[in-house]
Model the fold of this input.
Amino acid sequence: MKKFLLFIILLLCISINAKSQNYAYGWGNNYYGQLGHGEVVESPQQATAYKDWASITVWEGTVIAIKTDGTLWGWGSNYYGLLGDTNIKVIYSPIQISDSKNWASVTMYDNFVLALKKDGTIWGWGYNYYGQLGIGNEESSEIPVQIGTDNDWSYITCSHSYSMAIKEDGSLWVWGDYNTSSYDYLLTPTKVEGIVDCVSVSCGSQNLLAIKSDGTIWASGKNDYGQLGDGTNITRENIIQIGTSNDWASISCASDCSIALKKDGSIWAWGNNCYGQLGDGTQINKNVPVKIGNSNDWIYVKTSGYRSFAIKSDGSLWAWGENIDNLYGEGIPMFITSPIKISNDSEWETIASTSSSIL
Done:
């Protein structure tokens, strides 16, 4: 299967075609040069002459990517120094951010970046008002700064004002503005008590959901819309198990809703559903997981903002939720409450997006 990555920023889409040497393709809004050039295009076109991209993450008009050789690159908006030189506000062609060649993964949200190296160290740069960089202070940085001295990190993610990571021993850590009961920011990584053996974690708006190695889901934080999925709307200071199922495969949460994929290929969702972003055919909030449709051939799911994406085993791409500007075609309602196929292509493999993305 050809490998594609789809990223949508405002009206921007960027994809990677691995079969043709991992070139990036994009279309849509290009105000910040996030397509890798200075033009606006309405259909997928090669976004940059560079190739061999392994992964890409985006936020608003900024794109940061890792090549297959482990080097780190960026282009687009350079506000808060995400791409380095703050004298340049817009960068139309990829520039290398660091001399290192051992970057493993990168995540970005609201003008700050976290990146994991292959040696197990975490690095951060950009906006740091809430201490979300985890470097012990609230000073922003225009260059990657190592977070602590530990070298046993295995997974990273971040949200609007806080960051999370998992260590090789399965312990879960958080820093930034995550404390739901006070305004005290966590300036360095702090261990989340009450959970072990984590394999993945996703950050919502002041809440987290994590999957353990035994396939169970655990959650804590704000729960105004039922986004924790525990059957209540009560904020949970301590992490708790959600339900009794032990066959969860992946989780994605943002903007007060959560969507998860089970090992049997079914999609489940809960939380805020004002725009139909849960995909259950309604716009009614849910505080327990509900199955989305009858299909059991889903392989990937991602939610961000008020929109969601999913991919089936046949490589088809589907979406639901808010549909401003007719991004999915003319005649489609503004609120899509059930998954609809949005591309005639059938070789989509994975998706990345942010809470401000148009999906």
In short: The domain at 5-352 is CATH 2.130.10.30 (Methylamine Dehydrogenase; Chain H).
